[in-house]
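Q: What does the assembled structure look like for these inputs?
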Amino acid sequence: MSDNLTVEVVSPEKRVWSGEATMVSARTLEGDLGILPNHAPLLGVLVDGLVSIKGVDGEKLDFQINGGFISVSKNRVSILGESATE
Amino acid sequence: MGAQLRIYRRRMRSVKATKKITKAMELISASRIVKAQQRVSASSPYATELTRAVTAVASFSNTNHPLTTPHENPKRAAVLVITADRGMAGAYSNASIKEGDQLIALLKERGLDVSAYLVGRKAVNFYRFRSRTIANSWTGFSDNPTYAHAKEISDSLISAFLADSSVELSGVDELHIVYTQFKSMMTQTPEAVRMLPLEVVETEVPSGLLPMYEFEPNAGEVLSALLPRYVEARVFNAMLQSAASEHAARRRAMKSATDNADELIKSLTRLANAARQAEITQEISEIVGGADALASASAGSE
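A:
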């Protein structure tokens, strides 16, 4: 099993960011959610707000996501938002 | 300068000026096609992810959603026709409008009323001139649509779809889109597709089985959040492809206009040269004739 997550942040107009990460945290309708490698497959609706991604080299990236959702499967995390800005 | 020659020169000047304009438009469109194509491909990761997600929810839960359920007794259908705001693009807008008319005729055969939703000034003018009713229209962004535009259009269409057609006049039971598919630089074809009720089409079948997803908060709510996004993404994609097609059609139309102007200039140049030569010949024969007349007159007087 790989130790990292492959993360994509996508908006309808373009792919905003993609890369490797060690952790992704976001807030769904049910509450805060942290995703580490080997998370169970998940599809969740996000509330408008920040999604933070912790990159492999320890840097932390924040994205403002509006009207979005998150999908996780096999260490691939896709964050889709109607608007996604850093 | 003779009158004939002057007229030819004047026409050449005007054709040359037109050629400059068409040439410039051709070059502008050529550069915009590339940009429009890039936007189409830039929007595809989102569409792919969305399709995957919708497929996942749809295949793991048998939740019925109003957007996916066909109406038992459809009364009215909405047709969204996407055209250009500006002309000078050959048959681009007309082809789309014609495709829309065929679809409307087909729907009427099935006994459905049709309400028209239009994008682009060309379609609006076409409908207004024939005093057809327009349910809603959007103009001003056909060559450079943004997601916000697509969202605005989808919102209006989805709310019409969700309204009860037997009670409200604005309600529709089906939604069709007519747009121009961008196949390649040279080929763009008008295309009519049924959008709602939704059939989720998986263009690329994902390898292997889809994983067992957990849903947050639950499958039904995820689906109702996803489906409108899905419709928006499809509308957005149709608009982007139409924009790319518009630029391609305009480039082609302007290229042939430039070629025709070249041709015209060539034949006018020939005519002008002939006129100039004829003028010179005439002048010479006039001078020679005049000199002859003078010579014979003075010879007679001696």
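Chain B touches chain A through 31 residues (CB under 8 Å).
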